[in-house]
Amino acid sequence: MTILLIEDELLVARTLARLVRQLEPEAHLLGPLESVQAAIDWFGRQRASDQPEPDLILSDIQLSDGVSFDIYREVNPKCPIIFTTAYDEYAIRAFKLNSIDYLLKPIGPDELKAAFEKYHRWRQGGNATDFRDQLRSLLADVAAPTKKYKHRFTAHYLRTIVPVDEENVAYFCRDELIYLYTMDGQKLVTDYGSLDELEELVDPAVFIRANRQCLVNQKAIAGYQSHYSGKLIVMLQKPASSELTISKEKAALFREWFEQG
């Protein structure tokens, strides 16, 4: 049996290799590979030279340049994988549902022995096609997490830093400084460096970059009018009597965003 070890911590790799040799003395151990890119390159060389894949992979999840799931999306190995991790946040439910083993660090001999026993049972009664289906299902379940957006912002009110919840922000506007306009008409100074910075932080389903000067909350918009030039004039219900101009280039994008609600 050939076992490939993917692990970026040298001491952990040595400990794991020692346990493997104790539990599977006949196994041929490859690696360790320390990064996502190193593993992708390794599989590429193996396939280019028609070398067989390992029989089993022992793979850490968090590597020096990313998570190992990116390896398996790229190379789609045929062999089973035993995942190892120091964190329990990586979709443990998905591992259970897909019958792919995982071990939480620090890994003891009993846990590794049980994982090897599971592997041997798979060898006796499983097949590679079933495993590839399981792996594809697992990778779908542990897809990159949804980006987290800010829903609370800070601004200066008199001499105090105050929080402003997303629903109370009418829009942000740049005029040398970045100002936050609240739904009740207050104009507060923020410490944000640019609207580009803010645009990366806010939820694009809630805010849209109206123009170079303003980032507006959909809840503050009363409606819009088309201009003969192709621009849009956006009327804000909060603060009262305010208008924003959407450029001709962004008009179609704004309409789509506004209609989605």
Structure commentary:
By secondary structure, this protein is α/β, with parallel strands linked by helices. The protein folds into two domains: 2-141, Rossmann fold (3-Layer(aba) Sandwich); 152-260, LytTr DNA-binding domain (OB fold (Dihydrolipoamide Acetyltransferase, E2P)). It is 35% helix and 30% strand. The chain is built from eight helices and 17 strands. It has helices at 10-23, 36-48, 69-75, 92-97, 109-125, 128-141, 195-201, 248-260, and strands at residues 2-6, 28-33, 56-60, 62-63, 66-67, 81-85, 102-104, 152-157, 160-165, 169-175, 177-182, 187-189, 207-209, 214-217, 221-226, 232-236, 242-246. The strands form five sheets. The protein has a five-stranded parallel β-sheet. The protein has a five-stranded antiparallel β-sheet with strand order 12-11-10-14-13, covered by helices on one side. A hairpin with a 5-residue loop joins strand 15 and strand 16. The longest helix has 17 residues, at 109-125. The termini are far apart. The model has no long low-confidence stretch (mean pLDDT 85). The modification 4-aspartylphosphate is found at residue 60. Residues 2-120 form the Response regulatory domain. One of its GO terms (cellular component) is cytosol. Residues 178-260 form the HTH LytTR-type domain.
